[in-house]
Model the fold of this input.
Amino acid sequence: PACPTMSYVNGNEAQATWPQAERKFVELDRTGEYELNGNRKQTSKAYTVTGTIDASKRFHRAAVGAGAVTLSFGATAAAQLAYVGREYTFFTDDGGANALTISTPTGSYIYGAGNAAPQGSIATTAAGTPSSCTVFVYSLTHVQVVSAVNMA
Done:
């Protein structure tokens, strides 16, 4: 019988020609990385109003031109389980004088961005200027800011 082959969809993905049900291996991207809980590397979500952060998305863009936006990691520390062990990046647009706030659940803290003590949330510091923040959620109660521009 003929051997299954692979074809390249684009520079990042190889696509197998055999059925999905026959795949019994972890597929790697061209950098040799994989995500067991679903590929989030190039997935994003846009927000225009306050809401809960989508745990399945890697990048989050808040359009703050129409009003302030607060993005939360769930209501309780127990609800934060879906986020643990993952990194998330947040961006704002450059419209309006409104803030983006990234909030942790009651009983959780966010560390970094120039704060000496852990905070319940961080927010943009320069309204009307694009801001960004990358965080790593390393437990049910701790979120660490990895890098931030115009956020504290």
Summary: The chain is about 0% helix and 35% strand. The longest strand covers residues 142-149. The CA atoms of residues 94 and 129 lie 5 Å apart. The mean pLDDT is 77.
